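User: Predict the full complex structure for these chains.
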Amino acid sequence: MINFSFDGKAYTAQEGDTLAAALLRNGIGLVGRSFKYHRPRGIMTAGVEEPNALVTVGEGGRAEPNTRATDVFVYEGLVARSQNRWPNLNFDLGALFSLASPMLPAGFYYKTFFGSAKRWMLYEYFIRKAAGLGNAPTQGDPDRFSHRAAFCDVLVVGAGPAGLQAAVDAAEAGKRVILVEQDNILGASLIRDPQELNAVWISATAARIRAAGGRILTRTTASGYWEHDLVTLTQRLSEPGQIPVNGVAQRLWHVRAGQVILANGSIERPMAFAHNDRPGIMLSQALRSYVRRFGVVPGKRLVIATNNDDAYKTAQALKDAGAQIVAILDARPAPAGANSGHRVYNDAVPLSTKGARHCLKSVSALVDGKEMDWDADLLAVSGGFTPVVHLHMQAGGTLDWNEDAQAFIPASSRQNVTTIGGAAEPQPIFKMVPVSKPKKSFIDFQNDVTLADVDLAWAEGYRSVEHLKRYTTLGMATDQGKLSNMAALGRLAEKQGVAIPEAGLTTFRPPYTPVTMGLIAGAGAKDAGAHVRRLALYDLHAAKNPIWQPLGYWFRPRAYPNGDETLAQAALREAKAVRNNVGMTDVSTLAKFEVSGPDAAAFLEIICATTVGKLAVGRGRYTFMLREDGFVFDDGTVWRLDENRYLLTSSTGGADRMATHISYVRQYLCPHLRVSAVNVQEHYAGIAIAGPTAKAVLATLIGEEPPRHMSTVPAVIAGVPVIILAASYSGERAFEIYVTASDAATVWTACETQVMTVGGALYGLEAMEFLRIEKGHLVVGGEVDGRMTPYDLALDKMLNKAGGYIGASGLARPALSETGRRQLVGLEAIAGDIPEGSMLIPSEGASPQGHVSAAAFRIIEGGSVALGQLVDGFSRHGEVLIASSPTRGQKARVRVVAPHFYDTAGERYRD
Amino acid sequence: MTEVTITTLPAAPLHVFEIWGNAASVAKRFKAAMGFALPATGRSGGSDALRLIRFEPTVWLVEGDVSALSAILADDGAVTAISGGIVRIRLSGPSWRTLLMEGGVFDAEDPAFSAGCSAASIIDHVNVRLHVINDDACEAYVPLSFSQGLLHFWKEAAESLAA
Amino acid sequence: MMQFTCPHCGPRAQSEFIYERTVDSVVPLDAPSQEAMAKLFTRSNPRGVDDEIWRHTYGCRAWMILTRHRVTNEISGCRAIGPEALP
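Assistant: Here is the predicted structure of the three-chain assembly.
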C-alpha cells in the first residue's frame, strides 16, 4: 500500500501503479479540465500520449506541472493536483467557456483581440488565466541533473518483444548494446498481451543482455535523434516531485551509436464522434493495460468501438475481469468479429455519447445506416494504430504510406537507423470516415480542436497542414499531436480531395516527450551555467573581500573598499594612490604567447601590424593586430626576451580568438616557418606595479636597478624567478611582473608588503579604467570595437611600412582612409557628467555623429572626461557637442579635444 | 563499484616540446639520447622521471626534467614552460571511467583507452587532457583557471555515480 | 551535434572542434587587395558539398579540411593540414 494525495485528499495505491492507475483504482474518473473550454476530462490512455490527465506533481521547487498521470509512478507521499480549474475540479467556473464555445472558434485570438499592443497586454492577462496548463514553480529546483555521454555499437529503443530480441541478438554477437525503455518495467505490449512470450521470457532475455555486457535503461525515453546517430535519452532517476536518493533527479544521456534500432511500437488512435471526450471513454489497448497490468477495471458496462481485430482482445480481458460487454461496434462489414462470442454490430460507426455528472451514461452509433444506442459506463475505442516514427523522422527519414493500416511507416533514412516491430508493420484496419456532427467531435483533446475547427480553417483558406496546425493549435503542447495528427490529416485530405499522403505532414521535432528545463541545464542549473575562471591569486584577493567584476569568464577585483567605502570612493582612492605614490594590481588574465625559433620575428611581423624584427634583445614595444579586412583586431605588447624568443601579450577579452588566430596563421598559412608559438596565458600570473614610486619599490624587491621604460629583464623576487616588463597602461612609471602561476602568491605577497610599506594601495579594474581613460589608452572592446582602422585610432604611424602583415591588403582599400569615418577623440565636459555610451550630436534632434566609448574624470583635478568616436573627429578639436543618452535621460555639453588628458608628453614613465 | 577518489597533485615542471622541422631526424636523435621513442598520437612514453605525452601532431607535453631536450632539438624545435597554467588531477578507483562520462563527449569507457593512452576532450565545458595511468587511475591536465570549477563538478558527480 | 573523424584522434564529437571558414575563403598572405576582398566577401555558398576548415581545438588542436554536405551533413572526406609531423 502506498499513500498519495490528489487535490488534497488522501488515497492509497498499489505497488507499481501509475498515478492514472491509482486514480482509476480509487474510482476517480474526472482528472482535469480541458485547455480552452474547461470540459471535464478523464484518463484516456495508459502512456506518454495522454492528452487529458495532466496534473502537477510534487511541491515547492520540485513541483512538475503538466505531468501525464499515465507517466508517473506513485511513490509514498506523492502529492498531485489537477490543473486549469477554479475554484475546484468538480465545480469549475471556467467551464462557462464551454457554453460560449460557438464564440471560441479556431483562430479566436487572431479574430478577436484587435487593437493596440497595449490592449493586447490586457487581453493576454485574461487569456493566460483562462486557457492553460499548469503553473511553473516559482521556487528553485533543489535537485541536481546529470548529463552523461555513452557510446555503443547498437542502441535499441523500446523493450517490447522486437526490441528485446534485437538487443539480445546484438549483445550476444559481441556488440556494445544499450536498450532503453520509457516504462519502469520491460515488455511493453507483452505486459498487456503476454501470449507465449511472458514475464519469464522478458526477465530471462534481460538477464542474457546484461550477461553479454549490454546496458538496460528503464524509465528512459529516447527523446531526440540528432546528427550522426547521436540520440539523447532522458532518464528519470526519481519520479516527478520525488526526493531523489542520490540527489540527482534525472539524467540526460548523449548516446553516440554505431547503429540505432527503433522498436517504438504504435500509438492507438481515438475516433472522432460527438462528445468523444467524456471521462469513461478510453483507448482500447489502454483499458486492457489497466485491467491486465494493474488489475483495475474502471467500469461495469463496456461498449467497444473498433475498426480492427485488436479491440477484441480488450473485450476478452474485460470479460475475464467480470465486466459486461454490452456491444462491440465494428466499423467493418460482416463477418468481422462474428466468432468472437460477443454481441457484435457490423457497419457500426459511433455518433455521440451522453453523460451524467462527469461520467458516461450511454453511447449511440449509426449501425448499417440506423441510429442505435446503449447504456454504458465505459467506452473503449480503437481507431487504428499510428506507428511511432518520431525518432526516424528526426533522423532525417522518409515515410511510406501503408494503405492496409492507413498509416505512415518508416522508409529510408540518411542515418544508420532501422525500425522494427509494430512500428514497421502496423495492424491492418478498416478505413472509416467520421459521420458525427463535427462541432463536439474532438480530434485534439489537449488543445480542444474539433472536426469543426478543421473545417473552419479550411473554409477560411488554410490549405497547408502547417498552417492548419498554427491556426487551430492542433498538435501542440505536451502530446504534440500523438493522438490527433492522423485524424486531422484525414479530414484535411478529405477536404482537399486527395489521399492522406498527399496532404503533407508537419515536422517531427525533438523532444519526443516533454523534457524539464533542469535536465537541459544539467550542472549549469545551479549558477550562471558556465564555470567562473578563477585567478591564480584568487585566495589572496578573496581574503580582502573585493568587489568582483566579471570579465569574460573571469572574475577580477573591481575595487578593494576600505570599511564602508563605496565602489566609486574606493576606486578613486586607489587611482589617486597610483597617481601620487604607487599601486599594484593583478593583470594575470592578459593573453600571452611565447614565440620561439629562428623565424619568430618573421612570424610576429605577420601577426602584428607593427615592426618587431628591429627590437633589440631586452626591449619591447606596443603593438596591434589587424583582421584580414584591415580593421584593428586586438592590441598588446611584444618583448624580445632572447635572440630567438619573444613574449607577445594581447587583451584578456580577445585571448581565445587570438590563440585561434595565431594557430591558424602558423599552422594553415605558414606551415613552413621554424617557429613555436605557445599559449602561456595561464602559465604566467601578472602583477602590475604603477606610480611615481613604483621604480623605488621594485628596486627594493629585485635588489637592482629596474629596467627603463619598454625594457625587460629577468629578475628574482622573494627567491622566485620572474620576468619584469617595464610598460605603462596607467600613464605612470610602471612594471609588469610575470611569474609562474604556481609561485605567484609568494611574489604578490612580497610586492604587497613593499607597496604597503611606502603607503601605496591595491587597485582594481575600476581604478584601472579611470587611469587609462585619463591617459587616453585604448581598450579592446571599447575604443577598438571592430569598426576602427589604424587610421581611425591614429595608430597608422606605427604600421610596418614593409607590409606583409595580416590585414595589410585589406587596409589598402581607399575607403578606409577617406574622410567621413569615425575617429578617436577626447571629450571634456563643459557642464555636467558625460554619460558613458551616449551619442554625440551637434544640436538637439540632430542625427548622431559618434558616441562615447568610455567616460571617467580627471583623477586629481576632477572634471568629467571621456573617449569617443566622432565623424572626422581629428579635425574637429575645439567643437562643442552634446553627449546625450536619451535612455538614461542624461546629457552633457562637451568640447572635442585630443584623446589625452594626462601627461601628454609621456614624461612620467620615462627615466 | 562506484568509487572514485579525486586528488589534486602537487605542481610539477611541465613543458611543451615542439618540433618545427626535420621531424624524422629529431625522432632519431631523441630515441638515441633518451632510450625510448617519441610517443605516437594519443600515446605517452617514457617513465615517471621523464614522461612525454603527444599533445598535438608536432607537440609533446613533457613532465619531468627537460635539461637534455634542447640539445636534442637543436634548431628543429623549442621547449617552453607551461606548468603554471596546468593543474594535474588524479582520478583513481574503479569508477574513473564512469566519472569521465559525466558532462563529457569522449568515450572513456572504451576498453582500448588503456594504460599509456591519452586524449584531450571537453568535460563540463572545460578542455581537459586525459592520460590513463593504469586500469585503476587516470590523470587529467586541467587549465588552472577552470580547475576549481571542474573539481567541484567532479566531486558532486562522484557522489551520484550510483544513481 | 555532428561527429568528425579527426585525422589524428579518430571519431570525436563536434563540440571539440571550432569552425574556421571554407577553403575558398582563405586569404593567401601575399594576396593583393582586390583578391583578398573577393576571398572574404564574394564567396560561393553551395547548398551541397563544400570544403570547410575546422580545428580540433579541444582535442589535438590540429587543423583539417572537412568535406561536408551542408544539407545532409554527410562527411565525405577529412585531411590534415599543418607543418610536417611524425606519423
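Chain C has one domain: 3-26+37-81.
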